[in-house]
Amino acid sequence: MPYVFLFLAIISEVIGTSALAASQQFTRLVPSLITVAGYGLGFYFFSFALKSIPMGVAYAIWGGVGIVLVTIIGFIFLKQKLDFPALAGIALIVIGVLVMQLFSKTISH
């Protein structure tokens, strides 16, 4: 169940971040409300994930998966392009999360 909460936290934060781009510095009401709700729910669900997953591990997964999802959303919907060094950096983040998940003894499965 803790990974379900972590997944919900990641999705909520990604929705909040995506709406933040549309809020135009909090001048548009609906995207601003979605941003606040997304971040609020993200931290709420993250707090439940932290009951069972070590904080550093949970935060690494949250950050890594969030970066990848926000990058994909930016590419598809906002037409944001990434150069090779940016893609390589994101790949290294994904590899780091996978190494933690597959080989770390600090993760409780």
Describe this structure in words.
The structure is a single chain. The longest helix is centred in the middle third of the chain and has 23 residues, at 55-77. The protein is an all-alpha fold. It is flat. The mean pLDDT is 92. It contains four helices and no strands.
List the helices and strands and how they pair.
Blueprint: H1 2-22, H2 29-49, H3 55-77, H4 84-103
Helix pairs in contact: 1-2, 1-3, 3-4
**Mean pLDDT across all amino acids:** 92
Number of strands: 0
Encode the helix/strand succession as letters. HHHH
Sheet with the most strands, sense and barrel status: none
Over the alpha carbons, how many angstroms does the gyration radius reach? 15 Å
Question: Nutshell version of this structure?
Answer:
By secondary structure, this protein is mainly α. The protein is 78% helix and 0% strand.
Please supply descriptive tags for the structure shown above.
0% strand, mainly alpha, flat, 4 helices, 109 residues
